[in-house]
Structures are given as C-alpha cells and as structure tokens.
Design goal:
Organism: Fructilactobacillus fructivorans
Bound molecules: CU-O-CU linkage, copper (II) ion
Helix content: under 10%
CATH class of the largest domain: Mainly Beta
Largest sheet: 6 strands, mixed
Number of domains: 3
CATH superfamily of the largest domain: Cupredoxins -  blue copper proteins
Number of helices: 4
Protein name: Blue copper oxidase CueO
GO molecular function: copper ion binding; oxidoreductase activity
Radius of gyration: 21 Å
Keywords: Metal-binding, Oxidoreductase
Distance between the termini: 34 Å
Family: Belongs to the multicopper oxidase family.
Shape: globular
Length: 421
C-alpha cells in the first residue's frame, strides 16, 4: 500500500524449498519467497511502515544494510530480535541518495547460517537525481540485481552449514547467482545495468567478461559515483555493492557473453535481438558534497582488525552486546583509521562495515583511495598491512555495530559497538 507520503510493506522470513539444481529441491529460507526475495524498492522521502514477520522456527533479525536509519531497533542488528511466530513493526523515512542496499538476517552469532540458508535480498533506493541520469532502469529487463553467493550442495541437493563450517568463512564450490546456478539472461545490443551484491559469507569475486569486455562502474555501496570508472576486471568483497553498465553494442543476435569470477563462468548473457542505443554516459555523474572540515582536536577513532580463525578481534576485543566500545557525537564528521594487521602467514582481506552511516574514503595507506571509492560506502576491503582512513558521520543517536563482514568473523566476535549521541 502506498500514498504520496507513506508506504506499507511486510517482510516475511519463511522456510521453503527451491529448485536450484536438477533433481531434489533444496531446503532454503527467504523473504516473502523460498530463497532470497524480490527486490524491495524504497523511494526517497517516503515514510515506511514495515512489518517484520518471522515464520521461521528460530529467532531472526532484519538488518537494513546501508540504510541510514534511527537506532538499533530499526537497523535490525542483534538488538532487534523477532521471535518465531511473531512480528515487529518498524518505521523510518527514506532519506539518502539512490543506491543498491540489502536486507539480511543479523542475529548474533547466527548471521552466517541464516544468510547461507537464503535470508538476504537487494533493497533499491530511488531518487530524483539518479532518475534523470541516462542509465538503464527498466527493472528486471535492462536493470538487473546480481546477488553473488557460493554454496556447497550435499547429497539430495541440500545445504549443510554445520558440516561446512569454517571459522574463516564458509565457501562452496558452486556459484549461486540470484539463487540459481548457471543462469542466463536475455539481453539486446543495448546497455545493461547490473547491480552486483557480494552476498556471500566469505568469498571475494573477481569479475570479468568474455573478450575482456570493458564495463563501467556507476555506483558503489551508498550511491552513484561522482565519476564513472571503467574496468575489465573488478574485485568485490563481502557485502559490497557495485553498480555497473555493460555495453553489448559490439555483439549481434545469437552471441553469448559470459561473466566469470576468476576463471569460472558464473552467468551467461544471450543477445537475442538487435536494438539501437545511442545513449552516452556523461563524464560526471553526481556532485558529492565537499569534504567537511574535521575538528583537529577531535580524537581519531580506531578499528584495528587482527587475527584469523577463532582469534579474530577488533582493537584486541571481541563482541559484547553489553559493552559500548566507542562514542561519537551525532552530526559531526570524524576520522576513522581502520587497519588490518599483517599476520605471519599473509593474513586475509577483512571487509570492514559500519552500521548507521555511509562513509567516505579519505585514503589507503596515505594515498588516494581506488577510483571507485570516491562515492558513498558502508563496506570496504582492507588488505593485510593496510590502513584506510574514513570520514564518518552519524545522523541518528543510537548504538551501532561495526565489524568484519566475513560473516563467520562477525559471528566469531570481530565486531564492536559505537554509541552515537
Ligand atoms: Cu551487513 Cu552488520 O551487516
Ligand atoms: Cu550492516
Ligand atoms: Cu574478517
């Protein structure tokens, strides 16, 4: 239901069965669906009334990853349990730029298993600025969410999270794209917009197409990039979103173009008809506000990530829901220094994520951030030995989590809490 100012929506976490592979159906969980869910479309300025319904046999939470909302109850981390057979009501006003966000389960420490079973779905924010840019936006036709996950299917095509458990993150040998395996998509010779979401527990995706086809990134986690960035290869870490435009004009009907991660084809685009396309991407997409001046006397906040396996920590600590680890004043820009210690055996990339904010990247090891890190972000890959500097502002008071988004690291305690006041 929708009026000019308000919109009502129900998200029902439910068990189901999904035909993912030939043969037996896989037991899965989803939002209003047997696995994942239909993309939730939010419009900037609308006041949302959302019913969060739990039809699962266990407690879950509904976390709006990337959504700038007021406080932990709406944000949906561990602080907002929804018990089996019950529902919670939340309200929020959509007040942030057009972007691809996502909704996922976040009960601590069961996030990994619930997301693995299918509790994740894209959330798209629309606004008046993005809608005037010359991007494909016919949702499901030339504007497609691509949820990247990997799974290990056991006998009878079933998932077995406990058996596959790895404290450094569960990985599976099979790429699962939008809840399907080896999907193909019919396209024309026009441009297509792909909204990639790395929804896997641990895996990094190294994306490229046949013929080293160039594609253009137009958006990052929290919005449209100020300038488009061209790639032939793009790496994504857990929980990141990258919106890209792929130009199929060089192909003809009957051609097939594969998308790969590393050397494995994960998805096929079939060119089924010719269609003219003379749209051009502008060199400049949106204006980012100038960087705010940060008070020189304000303390620099630190998040030092370290460890592997069960030893993962931030600032030498493990998560405790009863403890507040840091405080920051609402409405003030502050510097965060996020580091990843260099472990003896090489270490891992930790995707660092903050709730309750979209941040900006100031630097990587004192140098400019990557070209596709000039827009709004809520998750950033930090390599072993690296230090990234972020500019962070909270708009609403409340307690928010910040953590590594390898979900098994998060469940293993690589997560702290900040009070915005
Ligand atoms: Cu994607 Cu704590 O979240
Ligand atoms: Cu989040
Ligand atoms: Cu980690």
């Amino acid at each position: 239901k929708e009026t000019d100012t308000d919109m009502w929506y129900t998200v029902d976490a439910q068990p189901g069965e999904t035909q993912i592979l030939p043969g037996e159906k896989t037991k899965t969980w989803g939002y209003n669906s047997s696995i994942l869910g239909k993309t939730i479309i939010l419009k900037e300025g609308k006041h949302m009334h959302v019913t969060l319904k739990n039809d699962l046999p266990v407690l879950t939470t509904f976390h709006w990853h990337g959504l700038n909302v007021s406080g932990p109850y709406v944000d949906g981390g561990c602080h907002a349990p929804v018990y089996p057979g019950t529902s919670n009501e939340i309200e929020f006003t959509v007040d942030q730029p057009a972007a691809t966000l996502w909704l996922h389960a976040h009960p601590c420490p069961e996030t990994s298993e619930q997301v693995y079973k299918g509790l994740a779905t894209p959330v798209v924010v629309q606004d008046d600025i993005e809608s005037k840019l010359p991007f494909p936006r016919n949702y499901g036709v030339d504007d497609i969410p691509v949820v990247l996950q990997d799974r290990h299917f056991h006998k009878g095509n079933q998932l077995n999270y406990k058996e596959d458990y790895d404290p450094d993150g569960v990985q599976g040998p099979t790429a699962m794209i939008n809840g399907t395996v080896n999907p193909y998509f019919d396209v024309t010779t026009q441009k297509v917009r792909l909204r990639f979401l790395d929804g896997s527990n641990r895996r990094e995706w190294r994306l490229h197409f046949d013929d080293d086809l160039k594609f253009t990134q137009i958006g990052s986690d929290g919005g449209i990039l100020p300038e488009p960035v061209e790639f032939t290869h793009l790496m994504m870490v857990c929980a990141e979103r990258d919106e890209v435009i792929v130009d199929f004009r060089g192909y003809k009907p009957g051609d097939e173009v594969h998308l790969y991660s590393d050397d494995v084809p994960i998805m096929t685009f079939k060119i089924h008809e010719f269609a003219p396309d003379d749209t051009k991407l502008p060199d400049h997409l949106i204006d980012m506000p100038p960087f705010a001046k940060v008070d020189k006397n304000a303390p620099v906040h630190k998040a030092a990530m370290s460890g592997m396996d069960e030893s993962v920590e931030i600032n030498g600590k493990k998560f405790d829901m009863q403890r507040i680890d840091d405080r920051q004043e609402v409405g003030k820009e502050r510097i965060w220094e996020v580091s990843n210690s260099n472990e003896m055996d090489g270490g891992m990339v930790h995707p660092y994520h903050m709730h309750g904010t979209q941040f900006r990247v100031l630097s990587r090891n004192g140098k400019d951030p990557y070209p596709n890190e000039h827009g709004w972000k809520d998750t950033i890959g930090v390599n072993p030995g690296e230090v990234v500097r972020l500019q962070v502002k909270f708009d609403f008071p409340g307690v928010y989590m910040y953590h590594c988004h390898i979900t098994e690291h998060e469940d293993g305690g690589m997560m702290l809490q900040i009070q915005a006041y």
